[in-house]
User: What shape does this take?
Amino acid sequence: MTFTTTPTLMARNETNVLQITGLTKSYVSPDGTVRQVVAVDAFTLAAGAQVGMKGQSGSGKTTFLNLIAGIVKPDAGSIIINGAELTTLSEAKRDRLRATTLGCVYQSFNLLQGYTCLENVLLAMAFGAGRDRAFATTLLQRVGLSHRLDYYPRQLSVGQQQRVAVARALSNRPKLVLADEPTGNLDAANATETLALLRDTCAEQGAALLLVSHDREILARFTHTEEFSRLNTPLASVAA
Amino acid sequence: MIIPHIVYKSLRQHLVSTLVSAAAIALAGGLLIAVWVMRTESNRAFTSVTGGFDAVLGARSSKLQLVLNAIFHLEESPGNISPADVEQIARNPNVELALPIAVGDNYKGYRLVGTTSLLFDKVESAPGKPYRLAGGGRAFAMTEKEAVVGSFAAAQLGLRVGDTFHPFHGLMYDEKKQHAETYVVTGIFEPTGTPTDRVIWIPLEGLQRMSGHDVRAAAEVSAVLVKLKQENPMSGFQLDMLYNKRGNKLTFAWPIGAILAKLFDKIAWFDKILAFISYLVVVVASASILASIYNSMNERRREIAILRALGAGRLTVFGSIVAESAAIAGLGMLMSFGVYAVIVLVASAIIRVQTGVVINPLEFHWVMVAAPAGIIGLAALCGIFPALKAYRTDVASNMAPLS
Assistant: This one.
């Protein structure tokens, strides 16, 4: 097994790149009620593992990924990434950890429009391990964009844009890549190609991959899949 | 070093608003520097113009009127003084040189000033700078109808050595008031950067006895330009007492520089208003940077969220917005020197045409460093407001819809 959802107190495991325990996150609705969005008792992901997670829109899976990325602070629980307890880190250290250890791929690509393909990758490197033009070029070559290094995102097809996002996600040699509906905006052919590229490059770089999607065809390509609804068991709404 | 890179890319991405904001700063900064430099330089230039003299003796009037008439050739003469008064001042032991001048005629708006040949022999336009005639010319002969023309007047009138002209009566040009006399140009003065460049010099008697002038006043002069003996530091004070305190017929305008300085003091309020307006323009221009960046923050939220998701800290995005604001101001201030050059070159050309005083507007002045530093600082300060918005940008809600 490369991952587990066993709700047990777990010791820090150096072989796991991600280890989550008792994680909860709630939001206050406009009507004043508190809505728990995420309640995950336990989740681990071994180094280099690839997991497809199925979740419907509005199920809280993006919040779950944002919690792992350190973008959102949890109400309670523990998130250990590559041996570091994320929830006790200062925001600046969480930013640093995100830059050096994580790679993210989004449904809407989230490329910076004022930057070329190469510059998008180099910028991500600048926040992490440092700019490495040769490696950035290699990554873009690997995703089939060696002839588009100086193109701006608006000059690329959606499939090409997502390939840039894949290269950018791997630019700091991350231990874990989080992919949130990475094929959601792509046609079937591009979706298949991008998914294969994402999985292959993660494997080549030794990065674990946690991909969330509602697309059964995409998830069917994973050996290991997880139902987010089984993992996530939030309480019913309570008054604030 | 990531902030300069982010700033550079953002400036390029928002090129139009960057250039518009920088142009506003350029206009404001150029205006501010121009006001400061022109005020300082014109003050310095006007108070240092003495025509080589220390004082002016003239009919009872204000000292300023005497100086403006006799040194700057601007005002009307307050009246004449008698040959006896001229003789008296010339013989005063405190006086090194007394140069009588007479005014009252012009040639196409350029003033004719009658004087003696002492102008060519004993007078300096500024310390160590005697009046020099351009090649091929000579001084006028006191008994002939000859003229030596200031460099600016000669250029504007197209007069050259050997040319002739008919003077016109009065200080204002009126083509119906032409005198019958014909004067020959015998020399052109080299430029001095003083009001004398705008004057046509003729023999004193020539002006006094010009056809149509009152023969009863033919021996009188308009004023006497006085150079004091330097060995007696009290000479000016003693003459001031003699003419201004004890006498009531004449006015002794001394020292010339201080009289002009008083004029500048009197119009200091105008300087202050100009300076205030230029400060205001700078504040408005800086606020335009604030408005430009602040208004673009909505469309930038996603970019900021992406930067933060990539690992950029809050201080990095905060610093990049402040630096961007300062960079726009810096770009504007670079452009402002072009604006400044245009303003001061036009203004100094107007001053030269109107007064003959040459101002060097391109001389270094501390405000050329202080203004850019201040404006860049102010712009950085203005950048704090949008930067705070960037600092507070919520990453999760600005990245993608929840799923």
